[in-house]
């Protein structure tokens, strides 16, 4: 199951969120061809990804920033951009454009350090915007814990969209990252769990001053954890296309496409 949208419309155009999505996509497309050449791809990641062993040797500090704009594949990119699209606009709405950009970059840098300290001599490149996006999710949880998020549940042939409070969705997500980090070697390849956990925690901490300015616990009591504006409502619109096998009404002439005219 994974989130597909929330019911929390933003009050202004999230220019920074859109720009971050565009930057990640454009950068990925510029090195996409390297996936056909493993040696060239590894060389590229050596130069631009975060490699803890290089940082421990006093080199490769730039990767702390550049790694959050790189991805290890198309699904990695699409998954991260979906989460940023869902949760980023509302956090940007609350923080303002420049404040949100600084928050995003700070969360990504903090997430990189969180992963680094768990395996400072690892030579596995770390790439992805998920640490920074985890910070956005942490801020969203603090500001809108009861905002509804639509989850697409896929069970073999069953597809169903279910609205769930944000605190459940994000609480389950951070719980899975924590247990994943405990159960997996930090210097192994795969998911950078501690970057997710670190980014999420840093996002919450950086958002606390904003939450306090809104009233802190009084803000929650006043809004009941819901967005401070009417929630968006989604519904499916039926079409006039006739269903296969539809029975004709008595006394009506068949139309040219099998329906009634």
Top keywords for this entry?
globular; 261 residues; mainly alpha; 54% helix; disordered C terminus; 8% strand
Topology record:
Layout: E1 2-6, H1 15-31, H2 38-48, H3 52-56, H4 63-66, H5 74-95, H6 97-118, H7 130-143, E2 148-155, E3 158-165, H8 166-183, H9 193-213, H10 217-223
Keywords: Hydrolase, Membrane, Transmembrane, Transmembrane helix
Family: Belongs to the peptidase S54 family.
Domain Peptidase S54 rhomboid: 64-210
Short description:
Keywords: Hydrolase, Membrane, Transmembrane, Transmembrane helix. This protein is mainly alpha-helical and 261 residues long.
Task: Please explain how this structure is put together.
By secondary structure, this protein is mainly alpha-helical. The protein has one domain (2-223): Rhomboid-like (Rhomboid-like fold, Up-down Bundle), CATH 1.20.1540.10. It contains 10 helices and 3 strands, in the order E-H-H-H-H-H-H-H-E-E-H-H-H. The chain has helices at 15-31, 38-48, 52-56, 63-66, 74-95, 97-118, 130-143, 166-183, 193-213, 217-223, and strands at 2-6, 148-155, 158-165. A 3-stranded antiparallel sheet has the order 1-2-3. Helix 5 packs across helix 6 (97-118), helix 6 (97-118) crosses helix 7 (130-143) and helix 7 packs across helix 8.
